[in-house]
Amino acid sequence: MKFYTRIFLYSLLLTFAGRTMAQESVKQYLSGKGKDDGILWDFKVSEGMKAGEWTTIPVPSNWELQGFGKYNYGFNKEADKGKEIGSYRHRFTVDRRWKDKQVNLVFEGVMTDAQVKVNGKLVGTPHQGAFYTFSYDISKFLQWGKENLLEVEVAKHSANKSVNAAEREGDFWVFGGIFRPVFLEILPKNHIERLSVDAKADGSLRMKLHTKGTADAVAVQLYDAEGKAFGKPIHQAVQGAETWVEGTFEKPALWSAEFPNLYKAEVILSQKGKEQHRIHQQVGFRTIEVRQRDGVYINGQKIKFKGVNRHSFHPESGRTTSKALSVHDVLLMKEMNMNAVRMAHYPPDSHFLDVCDSLGLYVMNELGGWHGHYDTPTGTKLLKEMIRVSENNPSIIFWANGNEGGHNPELDATFFEQDIQKRPLIYPWAVYGGFETTHYREYNYGIGTYDHGHNIVMPTEFLHGMYDGGHGAGIEDYWKAMWANPLSAGGFLWDFQDQGIKRTDKGGILDTDGNRGADGIVGPHYEREGSFYTIKEVWSPIFFEKREMTAAFNGEFTIENRYAFTNTANCSFSYELSKLEGTSASSKTGTMASPNIAPYAKGILKVDLPADWHSYDALYIKANDSNGKEIFTWSFPISLPSRIAATKLKTAGDKVEAQETADAFLVQAGGIHYRFDKTTGLLEEVKNGKGLIPFGKGPVLQEAVNNYKSFSMRRLADTLIIESAFDKKESYNTLQWTIYPSGQLKMHVQYFPESYFTRFVGVNFDLPEKEIEGVEYMGMGPYRVWKNRIKGNRFGIWEKAYNDVATGEVPFEYPEFKGYHANMYWATFKLKSQSFRVFTDREDVFLRLYTPKEQQDTDWKNMEPTFPSGDISFMNGISAIGTKTQKPETTGPMGMKHVYYDFEKEPIRALHMQLYFDFSGQ
């Protein structure tokens, strides 16, 4: 019998025989698996909180979060800070049946230097580097069937300067401790030591096996998601310590972020027909191709990455996370319509990568480095450790060699030597390998450079969030440019989550170290900021062209399919027509036929509306992806402000009574008393039957000259009009009040902005903040907006209780009350004493509610969140907000100031603000 025939028969026997012969790896955890199930070990820390006393600590954990040692932010480099030593002790037993096996002691992550002893003896060289899985063969140190003592001494500050430069001097919190799981790995003497997989979109499969001991054959069988065998088994003779296995599978279901199809490979090592070792490995078939001066292709399709940077983080556990947390984070990213994530700035927990595999996110995995980098011997060791545990995750599309100058080019060759897939290597914040990844380019400079450059454009950090700036503010302009540029491969926002850490030394407060850690789209406990929904809309893979709901609307929307692999026929669409107000509030719902639109193509989405659709106030279109998850819900106002205002305007009543004094116009109508300043025309006082309403001192023009002059009073039919005179030189801004017999008040202001360029324009009123309890309004909500962050809200009626929260600060409550709110139709101001309503018949009016508290900006003062004077404003134009690294005007056209023409001060060129006031309290 020929040798290969014997191998084939032995392999068949192994593949189809009972599982009783299985020699699988066994894990015995000595710690918990994450932040919620830690196992208590004995512990002592040398400095800081609880220094010098033996007690217990859960493992895994960061010791600061358990009330030990000192807290340190990365920029804190003083010599006496963050140099605690943590001493751990743990007792465990090992089964006598393992005596003939290899027992590895595995640490998935220790901050930062770890010296390990078993039963009083050093088991190997101390490990340096926090974010990497390392192990020791401790078989010869064990007492079989007896209690064993594990001792670990952990130095928070590394003895290796390059490790500190790469890991501990960056712009993020730094911690100490055994922060990832610890376990025993029990292996047969003859076993697979390492398995490297390369599965391509054409169905070709290569595996590189490193084996230890003796074996003569290996068999590989793939199984699909239902557990059914996929393709024929592969049989291969073992070729010493390193064996290549190759095979081809016909039409595999490919892996991508949209369709994360996975197979399970069962790999069986044998010797003379006897199974030696069996392992299982997830496999995703996909091909990565970088076409220079073109783009990044996955499975032959060009990809634009919609990504975010993510730290391994939780406010109560620091860098110690869990599988459940990984699932939560990936689902939240995908809810924002992201398709990519970059690891910042070190490798994550393995379970995070596994979740990216199974749920579908493209990953850039990063070797530690932040301006500083590892020396070559240390970096080589840590790089091998990183690749070894993550090389088979199909979600990993790129490797990154450090961050922002923390690159060691001497390690480049090791990336390609270790990774059989030869994935592309990125230098974040640099031009390297055909990629332009420079961070935080100003829109004009960056887009200009990108448009006229030759490299693939993929900024690994752009729009540096801080508080409410960045992220959603500016992303629409950037994404329009990125989408239109064939050389753009998208980019990654900074960053996912506010790094607000629980301070056990300060009564449990959440600390972002001032403005350094307040960079997230979501808060420390995933509180959603307004930018969350802006990103969700801007990055929606279904893009709606602008469409107005006019009488001629035929139910057709032009949409663009921005998926790379999904036909819109695989999505689902539904609609809702809504009447928003009063006893007539009602809705009609229905589904829509999903159009057949290929990826990156345009087409028509048709909604068959009932004949009376125009009688409703709003149309909502919801799109769900192929898994039934919401992509976004778009709102299209049907009723214009003029139609809604007509339902609120009440004119009938008794005669309007008026009196003119030396300094005022006094008017009474419908039980409402008004006092207008005779010189300025401003509303000075308003009262109803319940008493004084603390609203008035307006309208004061913002960014325009308050030159209302020469007021007079006249009657028109049953109304009373108080108005200023127009003069092209002296009083070109005009104010007119109309008082109806019902007591309602109409204000019309015609004005010219003072400057050609202006941050905002509108009119202001006083309403003391201490009097307000809340507001209900019709418009876009519930989140506030900026000039460069309009998208993400929904048209409707919103009720907001007063709060004084600031984005990115305790108590992390959203939506914020203060700020600009878009497309106001009406607003009811709920005061401690009573309520009143303001409404308008004009489109595109912004409601401004007070001024948010000033937050600690950087020395550059880039955010510049500017607001009008006064308390309450009704605006024709609002201001933008900057980011941590850019002023508003450098984030794109939407961030620039408004431009208004004021030639000759002709009324036809003026801006108009028309409001109606109902002070009846009804």
TrEMBL record:
Names of required cofactors: Ca(2+)
Keywords linked to the UniProt accession: Calcium, Glycosidase, Hydrolase, Signal
Reaction(s) this enzyme catalyzes, per UniProt: Hydrolysis of terminal non-reducing beta-D-galactose residues in beta-D-galactosides
A GO term, aspect molecular function: hydrolase activity
UniProt KW Amino-acid biosynthesis keyword: no
Record-annotated Glycoside hydrolase family 2 catalytic domain positions: 289-412
Family: Belongs to the glycosyl hydrolase 2 family.
Protein name: beta-galactosidase
Taxon lineage: Bacteria, Pseudomonadati, Bacteroidota, Sphingobacteriia, Sphingobacteriales
